[in-house]
Amino acid sequence: MAAKPPAGDPVQDAPQVAAPKHAAAGLPAIGHTLKIAQAQMGVVRTAQTLLKVNQKDGFDCPGCAWPEGDKRHTAEFCENGAKAVAEEATLRRVTPEFFAAHPVADLASRSGYWLGQQGRITQPMYLPEGAERYEAVSWERAFEVIAEELTALDSPDEALFYTSGRTSNEAAFLLQLFARAYGTNNLPDCSNMCHESSGSALAETIGIGKGSVSLEDMHQADLIIVAGQNPGTNHPRMLSALEKAKHAGAKIISVNPLPEAGMERFKNPQTPQGMIKGAVLNDLFLQIRIGGDQALFRLLNKLILDTDGAVDELFVREHTHGYEEFAATAREADWDQTLTATGLTRPEIEQALALVLASKRTIVCWAMGLTQHKHAVPTIREVVNFLLLRGNIGRTGAGVCPVRGHSNVQGDRTMGIFERPAAAFLDALDKEFGIVSPRHHGYDVVRSIRAMRDGKAKVFFAMGGNFVAASPDTDVTEAAMRRTSLTVHVSTKLNRSHAVTGRRALILPTLGRTDKDVQAGGKQVVTVEDSMGMVHASRGNLTPASPHLLSEPAIVARMARAVLGGESEINWEEFEKDYATIRDRIAHVVPGFEDFNTRVAKPGGFSLPHAPRDERRFPTHTGKANFTAAPVEFPALPEGRLLLQTLRSHDQYNTTIYGLDDRYRGIKGGRRVVMVNPEDAAELGLADGSYTDLVSEWKDGVERRAPGFRVVHYPTARGCAAAYYPETNVLVPLDATADVSNTPVSKSVVVRLEQSPTA
Ligand SMILES: Nc1nc2c(c(=O)[nH]1)N[C@H]1C(S)=C(S)[C@@H](COP(=O)(O)OP(=O)(O)OC[C@H]3O[C@@H](n4cnc5c(=O)[nH]c(N)nc54)[C@H](O)[C@@H]3O)O[C@H]1N2
Ligand SMILES: Nc1nc2c(c(=O)[nH]1)N[C@H]1C(S)=C(S)[C@@H](COP(=O)(O)OP(=O)(O)OC[C@H]3O[C@@H](n4cnc5c(=O)[nH]c(N)nc54)[C@H](O)[C@@H]3O)O[C@H]1N2
Ligand SMILES: [Mo]
């Protein structure tokens, strides 16, 4: 990775730094939204598009998975949702002439930001073996190439089918059906790098890997703890829910190594009052050390156990399992160890306890700050212990709330995008389609990379996403990808993964959420599931970026016909013509989707069943909600090192870079910054504004280096540092993954900072 912009890339990374902001949204957010939207879409298309975001007759915002309320505002989107829409609805185009002018080597030398800014891809493109440039190709030939490679493999398990979480339920269902009919469970997805730890911890403890609260619960809670999440940037509409809860009397605690502006003060753009003053959201900010959350929740649990009458004994007796063992372990929790692990003070934890004990209805929300650690699964299990102790699951205004990322990542999993599917799911699938799905598990993301690296996987197919940039250990991942015989990307826009190819490569351009989807059977809708298990329809209304685009369901259906040919008795043609026929089959296979077409036609859609939430029934192996008692872990920090978390700026959507500013954190015009506590910086001799290389230290002894980061003195917790992803993915070792969930440890990388001459 270069410290300066790659040659020929006009994007200058020259960060300017000012003091961090203490409020989010408000007028500057509206101005910013309109500027970005109009630059990409022009004035008319901006109005046409933004008024349809998240409306009942419109499309689901391709930004985050936060749910919409039942009452919609005219403008039911946020600044960052508008940026996501503008990126997709842009008027810029990447044509075959573009590819003729830019050989693959040139694309590989560009920044991700530059690639994304070129616009929507207009035609299928093919990179033949040995060629320097992608060339236009017909759809027929593209599917033939895929069929040639897939049918030539020694085993179906040499193929990988990756999904990023924007894919609709219909496309996801078809993709997993195709993969299983073809013969593999190799269905890695972005969730493996995201909320897998939440799914693992929740499935074991409450019996379902999804959150248990609704938007209404948020509004009725007494206490909401937001741990390891930055809603002001990544789920801005969540701030409205927090504000509403607050008005109704809720208290809010945020647990984070960084003071995040949105949690400090939220200026609601939908109310005049909010625009001027805004609401203070945090009642208590616990500035925790990276990775200290399990220790914090463990001590809170001990303190609850030590308080007379604080445990909901009736709930514990009737609905839980493993209490005694857990309680014995938790009683041993130790103040000193907790203060070391968390960096918090005793009075801070006592204040938190007081709020916890005063609350009858508690919700814990979390995102990547809890999931991307070695001990992420035991950390989330400890959160579950915390909620179970006081009966806070399956009660109004209470519960677990893992806040999902991609707008349909939860739905994709519900549709069977999973490398370790349940036998019951496969049985239902086989029965419906007369196929024999493989029963052995497939590869997740990290195992897929190893398989490509070791020559065990040879065809890589991606339904969206940007695999090489989003995955850990960038150099290893890129080398692995280059070893394959074919890489195929179904994409809306250019990204790094198109420039890191197998022996042959295809780019298959597709419709996005905002695009009108017309098939032989008429205008189509697709469906998605939000973070709270609501399923609803999404209809694009824009003329597609080019007449050559195919929808995602059409691409899978045609690929299936080309690959499976006469072997398949599945009527793929019918699926392509009319997606309602796909939904009819989903209704037969996936529990909770009975009568799918009728129910999804209702404005606002329907809610999926959730046994713990709806009936306090816990479908676990014990038939009860399980307390667990793992030893407390927290990252060890060698002398002179920092614990680096890799996170998102305000101007990006994962690997899609909208701009070079991180407004709330006071950073402008560049992304290669590392935020360090001023006292740590002083000890390490790192002046604000100086340049440093980040070097990660891992037990394999391999040197992983990201050069040329500007040091920013920033109020993060002691011993901690923060820098943006994906620039820092090069530092995350492939084998550094969470126990059980195998999620890359992107939030605690031990680094040393070495002064670099790059300034
Ligand atoms: N605009 C926009 N929206 C997005 C995305 C985007 O990139 N841009 N991405 C989407 C996706 S896929 C996802 S998964 C979500 C991600 O949403 P977030 O999880 O909010 O995203 P991150 O930027 O990774 O922020 C992690 C937060 O956790 C904190 N943190 C880090 N380590 C720890 C820790 O050890 N303990 C605690 N308590 N806190 C910690 C960080 O300081 C930061 O506030 O957002 C989704 N929405
Ligand atoms: N170091 C570090 N690494 C991380 C993380 C981190 O916090 N730190 N976060 C992880 C997380 S939470 C996630 S979810 C992953 C994200 O990993 P991915 O989901 O793989 O990455 P994205 O950047 O969201 O993918 C963007 C690309 O998707 C394509 N695209 C956009 N819309 C559509 C569409 O409608 N259809 C299709 N077919 N393609 C579309 C565009 O071509 C765009 O370039 O990254 C993970 N990696
Ligand atoms: Mo994510």
Automatic annotation (TrEMBL):
The keyword Zinc-finger does not apply. Residues 642-749 form the Molybdopterin dinucleotide-binding domain. GO terms for cellular component: membrane. GO terms for molecular function: 4 iron, 4 sulfur cluster binding; formate dehydrogenase (NAD+) activity; molybdenum ion binding; molybdopterin cofactor binding. Its cofactor is [4Fe-4S] cluster; Mo-bis(molybdopterin guanine dinucleotide). Residues 120-488 form the Molybdopterin oxidoreductase domain. Keywords: 4Fe-4S, Iron, Iron-sulfur, Metal-binding, Molybdenum, Oxidoreductase. Signal peptide: none annotated. Residues 1-20 are annotated as: Disordered. It comes from the Bacteria. PANTHER family: PROTEIN YDEP (PTHR43105:SF4), RESPIRATORY NITRATE REDUCTASE (PTHR43105). NCBIfam families: Fdhalpha-like (TIGR01701). Belongs to the prokaryotic molybdopterin-containing oxidoreductase family. This is FdhF/YdeP family oxidoreductase. It comes from Streptomyces beijiangensis.
